[in-house]
Amino acid sequence: MTGPTRLAFAAFFFFYFCYIGLMSPYASLYFAHLDFTAFEIAVLMSMFQVTRMIGPFFWGWLADMRRDRLGIMRTTAVMATLLFPAIFFLEGFAAFLIWMFVLNIVISSLMPLGEAATVHALQKENAFDERYGRLRLWGSMGFIVMVMSAGAWFERFGIEGLPWFGVVALLIMTVLTWALREPPIEAPLQQVIRFAHVLKNTQVQWFMASHFWMIFAHAALYVFYSLYLDHLGYSKAVIGIFWMLGVLAEVIFFYYQKHFFARFTSRQLLLAAYLVAALRFALIAYWPVFWVLLFAQLMHAVTFGVHHSASIKMLQIWFHGPLQARGQALYSTVSYGIGGTVGGIAAGYVWEHLGAAHVFGVAAISSALAYWCMQRVRLHI
Q1: What's the CATH code of the domain at 71?
Q2: pLDDT digits (tens, 9 = 90+) for 19-53
């Protein structure tokens, strides 16, 4: 991967996660500003996850069949940029629900295909451990920049400015997709057939189950964390700082990840991530004082940073070459798609019927279930 190619991928990650840094912390507040109920907000926000049950695998299958990941990324990026401005004209829950579904079906292609293209390029140089984190951290930096800048803007001028931030981030990201480059994808016939056989592997099944429960847990964070902090009396600017600290912590891990991979196996890192997640969500739920919440956000380095990199590395054991995009898509579908959807809707129910704190208590239990599933993955790599 040449210097200009690394720069292009870093810039793509930066602006893609600028968009995520807008929608993940602030979309729920925007929907609340439009007077939707907590349950309606949970359903709208769950579209981020629902669409990952359908979109990533379809786009991944299409990319593997056409052997053209970047072409599909460019097409879907243009579609997303054209769809997003409809937010200015929508009225009512049904209209927003349809818009969220269609928009996120399209956007759901970008990260799995972008990750697959990045990993493929790095594997050609045997450089995953050293360089993946240092490319991926630019996504985290984009998230931080958007969270802080948008949070300050919303605090001063109001949340109704959110759509303009989204339009700009998607437009720049779309332009950048034309600067991405990837080595040719080889597609031996025998490997095309092997995908169904990989799915029957019990190690793969336990791996996917652990990720279902982990993202089920994190749905509480992605859907209700900002509302929870608002419920506790924190301003939008302070909410932005909480999000920024978590992402800054993951940036530090990404920069130094090669040292962790040199010392620990992916399985060990994942098991640690699940235990830390259980502790983190329990603290958020039942000890929500300022300094404890700050400490819990620093745990994001482990519950997201460590978990993400170790997952991507372990995934390559089973899904590589022409199976890579579909494997990445399957991982996204099972975890962020099914796990995130069920977790988000469950969090909405718990919020309304049991109380805000118990949303994160359930997340702690879910993280423990993820640990139990990963214990059954016997690969020591």
Answers
A1: 1.20.1250.20
A2: 998 998 889 889 999 989 877 887 898 788 788 78
